[in-house]
Amino acid sequence: MSTCLDRELLQDILQHHLKPFVSEIDVKGVYPEHVMKALGEHRFFSHDTPFNLSLIQEVATLCGSTAFVLWCHLMAIDYVRRGQSEHLKQDLLPRMERGEVMGATGLSNAMKYYAGIEELKLHATQTSDGFRINGTLPFVSNLGETHWFAFLFQTDDGRRIMGILPGYQEGLTLTERKNLLGMNATATYSCRFNNVLLPFESVLSTEGDLMVAAFRPGMVLTQVGIALGLVSATNQALGERKDPRLTELHHQAERLSQVTTVTPPIMKEIFQLRLDGAHAALESAHTGMLHSGGAGYQVDSPFARRLREAYFLAIVTPTITHLEKILG
């Protein structure tokens, strides 16, 4: 059941914990841990897709990097909630919902696999105590040694299985990805698995295909919140030149977030909305840069930041190219 977003409380948190630090987050790549902790302490991580969509949009209006790590964390929570492990639901889930433990979604490769773009990069052999996994995930965001991240792998006998592990698990090597065009505060790492043990109690689903089909609508739809927040922020600065599509995109996102049975036509609508949101973000950010003139051509300019955020939204999974391939 959906709970209404307490916007007054949220704005109070964002004004004190996020707004003064947006430039540090963007330019210096400072991970917004204090924002995430504050949101967790006030129970913003314990809700459903419509709530999460609104939450991400509000945060993205101030900072795309923080909105993205928030999206990563909320998706990791969703995986654990949907998963088959009662141990994780009783032990890990409450700590993630309180913001005591951060979560990451290492499923970019999996999404590309289901779109026919990539082969799965993680492979495993089942043993008496779990699965031994090898391979490398090039990009996993909102990760760190104490963060837990979800992933999909294929076994020797062709099964696709989802699991979740902490970054400190023996055999994992995390290498931070810096010097990106933007979004350097998103704690993005490459993650190499060297005979890593996934215990049976940390298996999210032995039916990986079904699990992905179940969470994918919410996964793609809540990303639209980042685009909505970005366009909204740009519109505030553009006055009469603001993007007129924001209201329609918002209405579509709100309608789709309420759908309980996701049919193929509905999933196509979600993909189309995600694609439309990415294009709207790019065009709004571009207009904002032109509108700002020389003031926008500074590293710490909010217009320059929005442009970097928009390009990130265009290339993060599912990318514009990925979406166009799916939609034909």
From TrEMBL:
Q: Name one Pfam family in it.
A: Acyl-CoA_dh_N
In terms of InterPro entries, this protein maps to: Acyl-CoA_Oxase/DH_mid-dom_sf (IPR046373), AcylCo_DH-like_C (IPR036250), AcylCoA_DH/ox_N (IPR013786), AcylCoA_DH/ox_N_sf (IPR037069), AcylCoA_DH/oxidase_NM_dom_sf (IPR009100)
Highest taxon above the source species: Bacteria
Acyl-CoA dehydrogenase/oxidase N-terminal domain residues: 7-100
What name has this protein been given in UniProt?
Answer: Acyl-CoA dehydrogenase
| Organism in which the protein naturally occurs | Tumebacillus amylolyticus
